[in-house]
Amino acid sequence: MNNIPKAKIGIVAVSRDCFPESLSVNRRKALVAAYAAKYGMDDIYECPICIVESEVQAVQAAKDLKEQGCNALCVYLGNFGPEISETLLVQIFDGPAMICAAAEESQGDLMDGRGDAYCGVLNASYAMKLRNVKAYIPEYPVGTAEECADMIHEFVPMARALAALKSLKIISFGPRPSNFLACNAPIKQLYNLGVEIEENSELDLFEAFKNHAGDERIPAKVKEMEAELGAGNKKPEVLERLAQYELTLLDWVEAHKGCKEYVAIAGKCWPAFQTQFGFVPCYVNSRLTGMGIPVSCEVDIYGALSEFIGTCVTQDAVTLLDINNSVPADMYKEAIEGKYNYTHKDTFMGFHCGNTCSSKLAFCEMRYQKIMARNLPEEVTQGTLEGDIAPGEITFYRLQSTADCKLRAYIAEGEVLNVATKSFGAIGVFAIPEMGRFYRHVLIEKNYPHHGAVAFGHYGKTLFEIFKFLGVPVEDLNYNQPKSLPYPTENPWA
């Protein structure tokens, strides 16, 4: 995927001047060796400058990291550490940063070999708060070389996402569809996150599309689509127009990145799209998402943002689905009850018209948009990629701005069940523990939109730390709480 950065974390050791500098340096070397042995050296860089109570060294270290292509930082306390210069390093570096610290190695070396880094993390966190400097601190940030190596490795996807957001542009086409107030998107928080937005009309997109008529690249693009669809190519007559549209979007992305490196798209896909373009964009949306360029439906700007974060974390395709319909009781009894450890209320169906990447579907076919075809000629609704979503672990999540421009987020881990949906669209039978309560006391109570981003795998731990780092208040960082932990609005007698 070319639309996300590669994380490279510079490891900088720090030392309090009344402690042996060699203690920090040697511990740094041991940490780097431990990381290399387990994960290789692709994600890290060992900075040779050990900061010892020196602002000048902090400047030198930051310069060295930038010259080496580092886009993230690990401040490693090999001993107590200098709280001012290490804080200035994070501030000067101006990128995703974490702190971890060395544990003491042996009871036999607690005289000259004791580092007191356990204490140093307290001072570091205090000093950073004074300067409004942010750094990720693991749940237990003190460990052996091997344990700190694991902490850094867990930071890699976080660093990738946080670094990417500062270089992200969201390109939107059109206003949200009428009556879709849920897709309202106050953009103030985008700027607070460092994200740029380019807002365009559907007319701008339509003009660009017409200008791509007869593009010499269309036949090759059609062949790509035919190869991907295989036996699922049930609407071959629409592929040429879809190929023209895909080239339109890809060319627009390259021409409109501007000062940013990465792009996500929020597009208006109805009601006028199909009558004017003569197809629906779902399949193309799925293909771009598979390339690492998330495309959200219905001009859902924060949906696109959420998808992009998930793409950076997973380095894989994500999708955006309606939290859509309940599982019929007879389907639950026939296919779920007694086979899976979920109640009926734990289950629901996640659906969208056909925007999910083919690699995430158990099977796929090119079809038409059934809902739109109730009011329009079928031929202008062709272009959906439909099929059951492949079973496996998922994380349902969303980062959202409220109408009054406050950030909130939710995360829930679960799975797609191996149950035939017997329906249309890109759709799956989902199960999330305590989904019924989560649906009522988070999704409804906190006024979340109907769209949720889906990452394929369990990434709750990483997403939680990213959202917390981005400034989501912990009281608004929601998850599917176990039954033993009631929600504030939950009726205890219900």
Itemize the secondary structure elements and their pairings.
Blueprint (H helix, E strand, L loop, with lengths): L8 E6 L6 H19 L4 E3 L8 H13 L4 E6 L5 H11 L3 E6 L14 H14 L11 E2 L1 H21 L2 E6 L14 H5 L3 E5 L1 H10 L6 H12 L9 H18 L5 E6 L4 H6 L4 H9 L4 E2 L4 H14 L4 E7 L3 H8 L10 E6 L12 E4 L13 E7 L3 E10 L5 E10 L9 E6 L3 H10 L6 E5 L4 H10 L7 E3 L15
Parallel strand pairs: 1-2, 1-3, 3-4, 4-5, 6-7, 6-8, 8-9, 13-16, 15-18
Antiparallel strand pairs: 10-11, 10-17, 11-16, 12-13, 14-15, 14-17, 15-16
Helix pairs in contact: 1-5, 2-3, 3-4, 5-12, 5-15, 8-9, 9-11
Structure description:
The longest helix has 21 residues, at 145-165. The protein is of the alpha/beta class and 494 residues long. It has a 6-stranded antiparallel barrel. A 5-stranded parallel beta sheet has the order 2-1-3-4-5, with helices on both faces. The protein has a 4-stranded parallel beta sheet with strand order 7-6-8-9. It has helices at 21-39, 55-67, 83-93, 117-130, 145-165, 188-192, 202-211, 218-229, 239-256, 272-277, 282-290, 301-314, 329-336, 435-444, 460-469, and strands at 9-14, 44-46, 72-77, 97-102, 142-143, 168-173, 196-200, 262-267, 295-296, 319-325, 347-352, 365-368, 382-388, 392-401, 407-416, 426-431, 451-455, 477-479. The mean pLDDT is 94. Strand 1 (9-14), helix 1 and strand 2 (44-46) form a beta-alpha-beta unit. The protein starts with 8 loop residues before the first strand and ends in a 15-residue tail after the last strand. It has 15 helices and 18 strands.
